[in-house]
Amino acid sequence: MHNASNLKILILDDDHFMLRLLTHMLTNQGFTSVSSCDNGADALKKIDVADTCPDLILLDLNMPDMDGIEFVRYLVDRYYTGSLILVSGEDERMLQTAEKLVHAHKIPMLGYLHKPVSPEKLFALIENWTPPASKKPKSLAKKVYAAEEIQAAISNHELVNYYQPKVSVATGEIISVETLVRWHHPTDGLILPDQFIGIAEQNGLIRDLTCQVLINALAQAKKWQQSGQELRMAINVSMDNLASLDFQDLVVNLVKENNLSPQKIILEVTESQLMGADKRIPLEILTRLRLKRFHLSIDDFGTGHSSMTQLRDIPFDELKIDQSFVHRAWTDETLRAMYDASLSMAKQLDMDVVAEGVEDLNDWELLRQTGCDMAQGNFISPPIQAVDFPRWTKEWQNRVRSGLLENHDPA
Ligand code: C2E
Ligand code: CA
Ligand code: CA
């Protein structure tokens, strides 16, 4: 069993003064197993030996031979299971980028520190250290499903629509709900779409999948309409759906059968999916659906490379600012610049703007201050099943009544 004081800590920095300083800080604080290296090659030698492999590495980014980023790659090759703290004199953006890279490699990252290092900040980060044993065991690693299993899931009606509301930031009114499909797997439990949509697309199953999602979503929209709930229903449409001309007939017919008006239906299209080689057919389908008064939404705006091109070519009604530019934009200058630019572009193009990934009151307050139209995210509601919608609606209305739209003190 580990206790903090016998944590094996390795400091890697080419600056010997820094090595002495950090060692001094740590030993003064009672850490008894602190070692240091002034180059990556020596550090890797320690990592390769079980006895000297550290639980935590304090890593300098800027080193002359092997830099910090390259070092991280070697850690990945070695299946390093300890944690990492980045220490650098680089600016905030550089450190954030490096942090994202470490996250992408799935190495536990406790955080980063600017030089000169403040002992309080260093110890605060170390407090968050947890032993590797508490990390997800391998058995929980994402399972890869075969196309046949997904095909069977569609045939056996194991796909279930969840719904996530989009609400007006100014009034709290519930404007629409987005359909997010899940797989209720008989033995594996709840499976999220990133584990089966891609495989469905690659194996020609996306038409059947979307068809099922549409049938369920429109039946639900009809029920809500009959109960007097004025909600728009948003459905995610894959690029592959837009590659065949019969897709629009399917949508148009299903909407008619359910006695719904096209204006009540929003088709969310991810722009990265829109970047396929031949855009003529998707463009034609989207334009014709728009002519029939379906609403078109550009999803995940800001990710991918041709956001502007898509905006220029397709008459979207709604723009969804990707969650990666929304959550924490109130405190992060880079995110804030991207959030502001997306918002302002949508406004100039007279589109409705939805901010995705609103996770807390600070995010919500930013949308209020900047005049974003709609909010979506776990702060408002995670995706829920239709049966839970009436209960959530009541809760939400209570939250709005009890002051959510009033001014709050900044964090
Ligand atoms: P998306 O359309 O961008 O959907 C938003 C995703 O963000 C959803 O993930 C949702 O659960 C998640 N989310 C919602 N609020 C928050 C929040 O506050 N914080 C964070 N971090 N995440 C939040 P989900 O349900 O796993 O769906 C992932 C993607 O799968 C969707 O991204 C969409 O592109 C695709 N997808 C989902 N359902 C369908 C479908 O029926 N058809 C197709 N073609 N794609 C679908
Ligand atoms: Ca979406
Ligand atoms: Ca999105």
Identify the overall geometry: elongated
What does the average pLDDT come to? 91
List each distinct ligand once. Answer: ligand C2E, calcium ion
Structural class: alpha/beta
CA-CA gap between termini: 38 Å
CATH architectural designation of the largest domain: Alpha-Beta Barrel
Q: What do we call the CATH homologous superfamily of the largest domain?
A: EAL domain
Give the total of domains: 2
Helix content: 25-40%
User: Taking Cα atoms only, what radius of gyration do you get, to the nearest Å?
Assistant: 25 Å
Strand order of the largest sheet: 6-7-9-10-11-12-13-14
How many strands appear in the DSSP assignment?
Answer: 14
Top-tier CATH class of the largest domain: Alpha Beta
Largest sheet: 8 strands, mixed, barrel
Task: Determine the strand fraction and express it as a percent band.
Answer: 15-25%
Give me the strand/helix succession.
Answer: EHEHEHEHEHHEEEHHEHEHEHEHEHEH
Q: Tally the helices.
A: 14
In the predicted model, the low-confidence regions spanning at least 5 consecutive residues are: 134-139
CATH-defined fold name of the largest domain = TIM Barrel
